[in-house]
Amino acid sequence: MVWKKEVRRVRDRQAAWIGSRLYQEGLITANFGNLSYRHGEGFYIKRKGEYLDPLGDLVFVPLDGEVPADASWEWIVHRAIYCETPHQAIIHAHPVHAIAISFGVDEVLPQDCEGELVCPRIPVVTGASGSTELAQNVAAALADAPVVIVRGHGTFAAASTLEGAYVATSAVEHACRILLLLKGIQNR
Ligand SMILES: [Zn+2]
Hints:
Number of helices: 6
Bound molecules: zinc ion
CATH superfamily: Class II aldolase/adducin N-terminal domain
Number of domains: 1
C-alpha cells in the first residue's frame, strides 16, 4: 500500500499549508476550527485542542465504529458529511463576517462576483457544537451546497479536495464581508 502512504503524505502537506492560510486570512483564531480528508474506510482529522497553524499529526476516525478520544470535538459533523455526501474533504472555520451575518437569516445570497460563482446560495443552519442535530443539519445542507454557516458559530465547507473546501471558506467570508459593507452604505 505504498501509494496510500504517498497519498497521505501529499494530503498532510496540503492540510498544513491550508491550515496556515486559514490563520493568515483570519478565517480562524487560536486553536478553533478543524479540517479533515477522506482516506480508506474513514478520514483523518485534526486532534482535539490542537492548532491548525502549525498543524500537528492528524488522527484517523473510521466511518463506523469507535472514535479515538483525541479526535477533534466536531468529528461527529465530519463523519455525518462523509456518510451522507460524496465530499472528500472538509474545513470548519470561524470567519467573523459570516458569523455576524448569520443571525436572523436562513440563507445568505452573495452579491459579489466571486461569491455568486463559488457559493451562490449559502444555507444557515443551527445546532449545538458537537451535537447529532448539528451533524444532521450540516450534512443535509452540504448535499447541494459547497458551504454552510452554522448560526453564531462558523462555517463548514466540503469539496472533493481540501483546496476546494478552503476556497469555498474564503469565498463565503469575502461575500459576507461585502454584504455587511453594503448594508452599512445603504443604512446611511
Ligand atoms: Zn467551531
